[in-house]
């Protein structure tokens, strides 16, 4: 495995942060209820027939610094209808905050970006600039500059008002990273795309020959922006001890797409306790994972009993440690899921957990005499 915290990219433009993630979903009205009650998001803005948009509806939800947009087409002629027919509910757009949309778009195209939508300036309520380019699968990146915009969220949006619901505070703070799955042998093509177009640097890579690749059956690289605010891992399937989970994703998503969104918390124990009480389902971790935990990862501040009870994973790198947990897929197709992560110095993504989980499953299998 390769990992460096040295900046090896070239910053072509100022990419400030994740602006929002837009999902295409079959029924946004119901999905919104799920993200509010289960993940503690709050209603923020709405666009649809009531605001003069007749082709689709979009609901914007907010949880501290995280913005999720859920869009449902109202007509079969809307492009989201074909998208949904192929992929099912999932992530359509990873949007970024930038300074100068026109310049960013043009310069990205000069460096080989695949165009999606040319820059448009709406100036009904102060300037609102937007443009987008394509990335892996049917996913896009939108660039937004709303620094001079005086309205709520975007043109043709109004305040979203919904009845109050009961939910526990999930203590989620911001998006840590967003992971894409691409097809066999496509990872390096997309790495080059992000290096060239965005000027991102690669700071983690694991490949054939890495122990984690054997256990996880995936190869992975992580690209980042200079300010560390944008981290975009990309996976491709690999030959491993079991069928690659990436292959299963590609089958059900019918191609490349976003695999998971990792959300940062500064109190993972409260977050997971509250998410569980709100009804969020997480992957089950075998008890044996916790048997030698502190021998594997060293001393940690948290009570191992509590981590075991909540099924939270721990991993350490040279910079510190992290705590993480993964939800089950959030829709019927086994495609998109969410990770909750707390960083205590670590810059990694939990690669050490692949082997530990695999071994603890095998240990339990052995105890049942099935090995
Ligand atoms: Fe992750």
What does this structure look like?
This protein folds into 2 domains: 15-159, 2,3-Dihydroxybiphenyl 1,2-Dioxygenase, domain 1, CATH 3.10.180; 172-368, 2,3-Dihydroxybiphenyl 1,2-Dioxygenase, domain 1, CATH 3.10.180.10. It is built from 10 helices and 18 strands. The chain has helices at residues 28-37, 79-87, 101-110, 187-198, 211-216, 245-253, 268-277, 293-297, 304-310, 352-367; strands spanning 2-3, 15-24, 42-47, 56-63, 66-73, 90-98, 114-122, 128-134, 140-145, 158-159, 172-181, 201-206, 218-224, 231-237, 257-265, 313-317, 320-326, 337-344. A 9-stranded mixed sheet has the order 1-12-13-14-11-15-18-17-16. A 9-stranded mixed sheet has the order 7-8-9-6-2-5-4-3-10. Residues 177, 179, 260, 262, 339, 349 line the site of fe (ii) ion (FE2).
Q: Biggest sheet, in brief?
A: 9 strands, mixed
Share in helix: 25-40%
Low-confidence stretches: none
* Overall 3D form: globular
Number of strands: 18
Number of helices: 10
Mean pLDDT: 94
Radius of gyration: 21 Å
């Amino acid at each position: 495995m390769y990992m460096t915290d040295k900046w090896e990219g070239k910053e072509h433009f100022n990419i400030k942060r994740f602006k929002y993630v837009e999902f295409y979903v079959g029924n946004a009205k119901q999905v919104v209820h799920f993200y509010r009650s289960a993940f503690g998001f709050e209603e923020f803005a709405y666009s649809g027939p009531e605001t003069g948009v007749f082709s689709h509806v979009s609901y914007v939800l907010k949880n501290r610094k995280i913005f999720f947009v859920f869009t449902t087409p109202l007509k079969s002629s809307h492009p989201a209808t074909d998208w949904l027919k192929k992929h099912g509910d999932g992530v359509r757009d990873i949007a970024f905050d930038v300074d100068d949309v026109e310049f960013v778009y043009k310069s990205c195209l000069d460096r080989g970006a695949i165009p999606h939508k040319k820059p448009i300036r709406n100036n009904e309520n102060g300037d609102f600039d937007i443009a987008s380019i394509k990335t892996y699968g049917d996913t896009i990146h939108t660039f937004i500059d709303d620094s001079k915009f005086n309205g709520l969220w975007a043109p043709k949006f109004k305040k979203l008002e919904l009845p109050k619901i009961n939910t526990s505070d999930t203590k989620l703070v911001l998006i840590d990273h967003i992971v894409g799955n691409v097809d066999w042998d496509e990872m390096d093509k997309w790495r080059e795309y992000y290096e060239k177009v965005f000027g991102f640097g690669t700071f983690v890579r694991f490949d054939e020959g890495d122990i984690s690749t054997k256990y996880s059956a995936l190869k992975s690289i992580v690209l980042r922006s200079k300010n560390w605010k944008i981290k975009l891992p990309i996976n491709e399937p690999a030959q491993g001890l079991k069928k690659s989970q990436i292959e299963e994703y590609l089958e059900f998503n019918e191609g490349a797409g976003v695999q998971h969104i990792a959300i940062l918390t500064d109190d993972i124990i409260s977050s997971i306790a509250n998410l569980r009480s709100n009804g969020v389902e997480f992957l089950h971790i075998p008890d044996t994972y916790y048997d030698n935990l502190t021998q594997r990862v060293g001393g940690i501040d948290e009570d191992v009993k509590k981590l075991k009870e909540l099924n939270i994973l721990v991993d350490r790198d040279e910079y510190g440690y992290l705590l993480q947990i993964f939800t089950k897929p959030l829709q019927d197709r086994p495609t998109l899921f969410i990770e909750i992560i707390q960083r205590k110095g670590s810059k990694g993504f939990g690669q050490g957990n692949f082997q530990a989980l695999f071994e603890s499953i095998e240990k339990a299998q052995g105890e049942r005499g099935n090995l």
